[in-house]
């Protein structure tokens, strides 16, 4: 019911805004200092740490979970929702019970990707199906609250979550699309100048509003074209072609400054 992810990514490998980086550091610190809170006279409400990462696809939510697991020296297990959710009454709860027991025994970071499908809003009971769906959600809320490990939930739409569950979360981290400055840093990191035939126009490339994952997709496309032609360095033509193809997926064109640069 789980897929193990590699945890070789660190926070230094990621280009993050300062507020997001600070919140991720706090999550790690909370996981490390739980026992010390009692010595400060603070009541221990729970053993574990729960957080939800929300934002558009490709903004680094799964990578951030991997970096947290790396920092804590724990394996990262992603819950396979296709194996957990069951149409038969009571089976989903059984699967979840086994999942949490396994996570406790292995001392891992547990990731629920597209978690709103499990932690979604409870429906008004108009049928027997709604009743059992609500029971599954209530059971899951109870399990996540009692879980003594690190649980991270990832979603594109925070509004899909059950409000009762959101109140139980310790950290809610919003992953936004990077601004122009962060995009330029991402381009410089993914496409170092020494791997290019000429200095890439990083500032102009950063004008294209892309997520970190889509910037990597552009660079991958440019490198594939370079390898196909037998060249050893990426040229600007290959970068522009790959960028244009990526933008066309969303019916967008090259930014004006970059288009003018191509003409010259």
Provide a descriptive summary of the structure in words.
The chain is of the alpha/beta class and 264 residues long. 48% of the residues lie in helices and 11% in strands. It has twelve helices and six strands. The chain has a six-stranded mixed beta sheet. Helix 6 links the parallel strand 4 (109-112) and strand 5. Helix 1 (18-32) runs parallel beside helix 3 and helix 5 (91-106) runs parallel beside helix 6. The longest helix is centred in the middle third of the chain and has 19 residues, at 128-146. The radius of gyration is 22 Å and the shape is elongated. Residues 122-133 have low confidence and may be disordered.
Give the count of helical stretches.
12
Q: Kindly state the number of beta strands.
A: 6
Gross morphology is elongated
Radius of gyration: 22 Å
- Ends distance: 55 Å
Structural class: alpha/beta
Q: What would you call the quaternary organization?
A: single chain
- Spell out the helices and strands N to C: EHHEHEHHEHEHEHHHHH
Mean pLDDT: 83
Strand content: 5-15%
Poorly predicted segments? 122-133
Helicity range: 40-55%
Describe the main β-sheet briefly: 6 strands, mixed
Strand order of the largest sheet: 1-3-4-5-2-6
């Amino acid at each position: 019911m789980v897929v193990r992810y590699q945890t070789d990514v660190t926070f230094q490998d990621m280009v993050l805004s300062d507020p997001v980086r600070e919140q991720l550091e706090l999550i790690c610190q909370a996981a490390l200092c739980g026992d010390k809170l009692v010595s400060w006279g603070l009541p221990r409400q729970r053993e574990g740490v729960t957080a939800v990462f929300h934002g558009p696809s490709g903004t680094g939510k799964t990578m951030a979970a991997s970096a947290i697991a790396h920092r804590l020296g724990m394996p990262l297990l992603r819950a396979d929702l296709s194996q957990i959710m069951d149409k038969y009454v009571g089976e989903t709860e059984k699967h979840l019970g086994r999942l949490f027991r396994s996570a406790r025994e292995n001392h891992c970071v547990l990731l629920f990707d597209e978690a709103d499908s499990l932690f979604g809003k409870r429906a008004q009971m108009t049928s027997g199906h709604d009743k059992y769906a609500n029971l599954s959600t209530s059971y899951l809320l109870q399990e996540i609250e009692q879980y003594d490990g690190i649980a991270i939930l990832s979603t594109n739409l925070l509004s899909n979550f059950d409000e009762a569950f959101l109140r139980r979360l310790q950290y809610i981290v919003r992953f936004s699309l990077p601004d122009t400055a962060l995009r330029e840093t991402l381009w410089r990191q993914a496409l170092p100048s020494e791997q290019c035939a000429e200095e890439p126009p990083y500032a102009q490339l950063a004008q294209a509003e892309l997520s970190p994952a889509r910037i990597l997709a552009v660079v991958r496309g440019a490198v594939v074209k370079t390898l196909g032609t037998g060249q050893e360095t990426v040229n600007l033509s290959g970068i522009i072609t790959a960028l244009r193809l990526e933008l066309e997926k969303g019916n967008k064109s090259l930014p004006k400054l970059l288009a003018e640069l191509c003409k010259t």
